[in-house]
Design goal:
With 298 residues, this protein is α/β, with parallel strands linked by helices. Helix content is 50%, strand content 13%. α6 packs across α8 and α8 crosses α9. The longest helix is centred in the N-terminal third of the chain and has 28 residues.
Amino acid sequence: MAPMTRFGRRLSKMNSRVNDRWRRTAKRLRDRRGPRAPAPPPTLVAGELVSDGVFEIRLANGERRNVLGRSTIDQIEALVASPPTGTRAIVITSAPPDFCAGYDLLEASRGVPETLIAHESNFASLRCSNVPIIVALQGNVIGGGLELALSADIRVATPDTRFAVPASKLGLVYSEAGIRLVVAAFGESVARAMFLGGLVVDADAAHARGVVVDIVGREQLRDRALELGDAIASWSPLASSGNRRILDVVAGRVTDDTAAIRLASFAPHGDLVSSITHFVARRVGAPSDLDARLRSEP
């Protein structure tokens, strides 16, 4: 093992002091409060196949603004990673008034720094999913809630939706993965203003930047998100997953053989051949030569 550099030794000592200070502060707070009050319930996550091919994941703790604890994040990731058979679109919704007020600070107060930063890749299953994901946003979308929203593919929002990352205000150094998401969505300049200057981005500004694709009233929010899900579910799952993958390649998130992904859509008995056949049949009233040639291939 290589000897530790002077900077490495200083950093190690600094981390040790931070951890010790955190533990002492937490102990003093516990001593002042006396017996620890029971922890409030975490945000529950419900999953339901609401229509043919559309799986809804709902954050169901509106009283606590749908805050994200470790168990809630794990539930979301598990549902996205293993949706019901036949799922072709996922829609994430929330109980009002807010989509998500960020990480559960009460849970954080009971932890130590090592456990709080142990998961630097929150919502990785969303970013790696083969199924397109739509998210319906309302009210505050803060911190970890913003990470969740930006890990989806398509976002719709209400006029009162607000995006913020109060990391510096809280004294938190944010994860690289989270900062990358915000920079990719809002641009570096706005991301710097959000992280360093406390900028709150409203729905209109987010729409202008393409972060959200549609703004609708609260009464129409869930229906609009499910409408998008139904449309996606009616299309070719191979094309949806392939296009999603190539979009990730173009965005620099992954590397893959894009030619092979694209070629798969030209399979003899695939949806593309059927679409071309139906199009030609409507125009000329007879099956296309392309259909006959492709379907005759092994």
